[in-house]
Amino acid sequence: xxxxxxxxxxxxxxxxxxxxxxxxxxxxxxxxxxxxxxxxxxxxxxxxxxxxxxxxxxxxxxxxxxxxxxxxxxxxxxxxxxxxxxxxxxxxxxxxxxxxxxxxxxxxxxxxxxxxxxxxxxxxxxxxxxxxxxxxxxxxxxxxxxxxxxxxxxxxxxxxxxxxxxxxxxxxxxxxxxxxxxxxxxxxxxxxxxxxxxxxxxxxxxxxxxxxxxxxxxxxxxxxxxxxxxxxxxxxxxxxxxxxxxxxxxxxxxxxxxxxxxxxxxxxxxxxxxxxxxx
Length: 279
What we know:
Elements: E1 2-7, E2 17-19, E3 40-41, E4 46-52, E5 60-67, E6 76-82, E7 91-95, E8 102-111, E9 115-116, E10 134-136, E11 141-147, E12 157-158, E13 160-168, E14 177-183, E15 186-189, E16 195-198, E17 202-213, H1 215-228, E18 234-237, E19 251-255, E20 260-265, E21 268-277
Antiparallel strand pairs: 1-13, 1-18, 2-4, 3-12, 4-11, 5-8, 5-13, 6-7, 6-11, 9-10, 14-17, 15-16, 17-21, 18-19, 19-21, 20-21
């Protein structure tokens, strides 16, 4: 069970994101908006989005995703990383298409921060030219490369690009959860059961109950909730990378309400988290 709750896209300036073939009114800055219904759109069946991550002090990237898209099953989606704004880069990740969230969790992580050589005394090593000695450069630039020549719309539309990390929940709530399908239909009945209805949209609500959890994991949940509370959207995955069960597909959602912790024994806690899908 994983929760991706920090999207580094939201931490860079709008000017740090540059895209190709942008349609008027569907600027690439829209991928920083939490609403999937406020998308970025191209005027062609290809898209190139370059993100300058150099303003981040240090970021360890382990989650890549495309949300709210119109891509066909034959689309190619590649995240390319480099330490300069030149392409192709030094490290690429290819994402597998999915009708819902196109998502990949990395086994390691992509580091945006450079590693400096440090002496035994703990000081940074300086070269004869007076510059810091760097053992490895961070990947401070990312380019999202999408090609979808068979797209029947003739353009590419994306609600969100996700470049972030994730929290593994352990122990998980794999055996104790409830999924509710909800609707926003407006239905009014007359006194003789005449029905007047306006169709709305559907979404999921997942209610999770976690078994006794040690304090270290509880601290991580506390830190996550402090950062996102109810106002930030996350990517929730009940079964990590399994995509066979539609009812528990990875979900773009927000925490609904509070998180209640009940002490069981020796600073172990049971707790509940409720998620509702966002659009």
